[in-house]
Design a protein that fits this description.
The structure holds 2 protein chains of 2 kinds. By secondary structure, chain A is an all-alpha fold. Chain A is about 65% helix and about 0% strand. Chain A has one domain. Chain A starts with 6 loop residues before the first helix and ends in an 8-residue tail after the last helix. Chain B contains 5 helices and no strands. The chains are: A mainly alpha, B mainly alpha.
Amino acid sequence: MSDNKYIDAVTRIHIKENDLLSADFLEQLVQAADYDACLQLLSEKGWGCGGQKDGQLVSENVKEIIKSERDRAWDLMREVLHEDIRKLDIFLIPIDYHNLKAAIKETRAEHAYEDIYMDQGAFPAEMVREAVQKKEFGALPERMAKVGEEALGVFLRTGDGQLCDVMIDKAAVEELVATADETDSDALKEYAELTAVSANIKTALRAMLTGKDQEFLEKALAECKTLNKTALIKSALVGIDEMVDYLSGTAYGDGSAAFDKSMAAFERWCDNLLIERMKIQKWNPFGIDPLVAYVLACENERKSVRVILSGKQNGLPEEVIRERIRETYA
Amino acid sequence: MDNLGMVFGLTGAAIAALFAGIGSAVGVGIAGQAAAGATSEKPDLFGKVLVLQLLPGTQGIYGLLIAFITLSRIGIMGGQAPTTVQGLLYLAACLPMGFVGLGSGIHQGKASVAAINLVSKKEDQFGKAMIFPAMVETYAILALLISILSIFGIK
């Protein structure tokens, strides 16, 4: 019967999918004369205007526009899911762990930094900050509290911010996977697994480029189901060609070309793969999976618009912008 | 024990009305959730989604029909009290409508939900969308036919 629980919410979301930005519209944005022309096109579409077509943009600032769209997507989710919105808390895990990293780094800062925190996490940023400052992690979830305490100890003892980041990032990925495994949502499990795979590959690449040893890699990489951690570490200790070779033999073989090109190209490939796998939900009328797919589709859409607007602001050529925009779900 | 035939016959009528009714209630209920979701976003869709919501409602009507016919032949609303064997035959005759009504009602409801989702996204596809849940109706009609033929065939 849980399949029948979200029928009205899913129907509403399927209708909303018609308003997602299409690939043709993104191409129009890329070809727009300048930043202002892009804003004009977005406002005609109601993007950045609270969904009001031909409305007034909330701001001309990219960050503010993107934030307003994120708020709009989450307001809609809260409206259709009511108290079950907690089932989508998995998307807030990266925000909470980011705030944990920020709070730990702030302990060595000479003055307070307010703007390094992100709002809209499952826990208020101030709560995470207070837990770190007072070294009382009891109010945080178990895994977060444990890694927070450990990472704070390491940071205060060694001042090694990178190691601290790596520990927290790994814990965030593990929390994501564990949370997804507790649900019966295939889409959430797919999202968590691909996030873990992408994080592992990126961390392994960075570690390889900075000459980190096996011990570091062991500490930094999370376990995931579709990638062999030991084999990945082994390949990362040899070099990039070995990593590409290893990845070619996995389910992520298609991404090895992007991986070989640049980190940004690989991130884009991961985002596109996730959206591609979510497209099956476009015609699924049951369960929470179509809502998960919509949240991810909105996220990809925001990433694309951010790339285009930033590109236009910085005068990047159209081809450069085009190769960075994400696959659309619409 | 004299009325055992009537007890069996009444049980058959109850099964037909009960299970087919439950099937329709679930089917119309879930289709109604989808219809409400669609109408809240696009009020213009009301007429179309209402038709799709009502499709799984027929099983309940078929069950009611079989129950009425049975009751009118077993001495409750007319006819004569059946013998025990006749009562069992009435019970057996009602089973197709009861069970097929339950299964087809629920699954037609699910097909209606999918059809409402399709119409919500592509309004011009209403004609095609209606065919998918309507296909499920075939099996409810077949069960109705068998139940009716069986009931009228009992001497």
